[in-house]
Amino acid sequence: MNKKQLSPESFQRDTFSALNDPQLRRNFKRAMNGLMEKRQAVFADVDEWQQLRELGRSVRANTLRKLPELLEQLEVNCTKNGIQVHWAESIDEANALVLEIAQRHGVKGVVKGKSMVSEEMELNHFLEQHGIEALEADLGEYIIQVDHELPSHIIMPAIHKNKKQISQMFHDKVDSGTLAESAEEMTAIARKVLRQKFYDADMGVSGVNFAVAETGTLCLVENEGNGRFCTTLPPVHVAVMGIEKVIERLEDVPPLLSLLTRSATGQAITTYFNMITSPRRSGEKDGPQEVHLILLDNGRSRMHSDELLQETLLCIRCGACMNHCPVYSRIGGHAYNTTYPGPIGKILTPQMKGLHEAGHLADASSLCGACVEVCPVKIPITDILLRLRHDKVESKRKISLAESGGIKAKTERLVWKGWAMVFANPEIYRLKSYGIAKMGNFTPGWLPILRKWTSVRSKPRFAKKNLHQLVREEGLRDE
Question: What pTM value is reported for the model?
Answer without folding.
Answer: 0.87
